[in-house]
Protein: Universal stress protein
Amino acid sequence: MTLQTVLLAVGPGDVERSDELAEAVVEVAQPADASVVLAHVFTDSEYDEVVTRLEFDASRDEIDADEVAMRHSTIRNLQSILDESDVDYEIRGAVGDHGPSIVDLATAVDADRVVVGGRRRSPTGKAVFGSTAQEVLLSAPCPVTFVRSSDE
Structure:
């Protein structure tokens, strides 16, 4: 299977592991000359908090999720690494529950691979709190690469 599109989906918990995520995406996308979709997924409350923190104009009727994602520090850090590695990318933002939103984005961009980050969780933690990575692994329309934080 030839990779054409790789979706790298990040959220609020990925700030600390953005270097590892970028390295994984470069490793997957570069040899295949695939383009990358950098996506930041926000829940409704995360989105409202980020819009306020980034001081978007509150008088605007609607603020585009792609625009919010473009200004987010995690995406900007990933952009620098992809630029240095000469990997083509576009930026997307999405608002909704993390797992289903990532799966929807993967379908919308016709991704050949999804890359997500996560942390090790106990079985009880997964059962009680759910797991975005688990949701994506089980529901994505393509193979998924899971990147665990290096501090685990």
